[in-house]
Amino acid sequence: MPLYMDIHHHVEGLTADAVGHAHEADLKTQQKYGVKYLRYWFDEGTGKVFCLVEAPNKEAANAVHREAHGLVADELIEVKEGS
C-alpha cells in the first residue's frame, strides 16, 4: 500500500493536546476508507503538523482528515521508507 507524508503548514492555535485529539479522531475514522494513520509530528511554535499514513490513494487519506476533524493537509507526498 502506498505511504504518504502529509503536511499542514500552519494549524492556528496548535497544541499537543489538540493534535493528539485530532489523531485519535483519524484513528476512529480510518478503517472506513482503508487507511492507516501511523505517526505524527508537530511543532506548536509554527503550527506545523506532519502525518505518516498508509492509504490506497491521496483521496482516501484526505477523506479521513476531512471527516474526522476537517483539517485537510496542505501537501500530501508519496514517500518510500528507508533505513
What does this structure look like?
The two termini are 18 Å apart. The mean pLDDT is 96. The protein has two helices and four strands. The chain has helices spanning 16-29, 58-68; strands spanning 3-8, 36-43, 48-54, 75-79. With 83 residues, it is α+β, with helices and mostly antiparallel strands. It has one domain (3-79): Alpha-Beta Plaits (2-Layer Sandwich).
Radius of gyration: 12 Å
So what's the overall shape?
globular
Count the strands? 4
CATH fold call: Alpha-Beta Plaits
CATH superfamily: ORF SCO4226, nickel-binding ferredoxin-like monomer
Main sheet attributes: strand count, strand direction, barrel closure: 4 strands, antiparallel
**Sheet with most strands: strand arrangement:** 2-3-1-4
Q: What level of helicity do the residues show?
A: 25-40%
Order of helices and strands: EHEEHE
Proportion of beta-strand residues:
25-35%
> CATH architecture, please?
2-Layer Sandwich
Mean pLDDT: 96
The total number of structural domains is: 1
CATH class identity = Alpha Beta
Low-confidence stretches: none
- In terms of structural class, how would the helical and strand content be classed? alpha+beta
The number of helices is 2
Report the end-to-end length measured between terminal Cα atoms: 18 Å
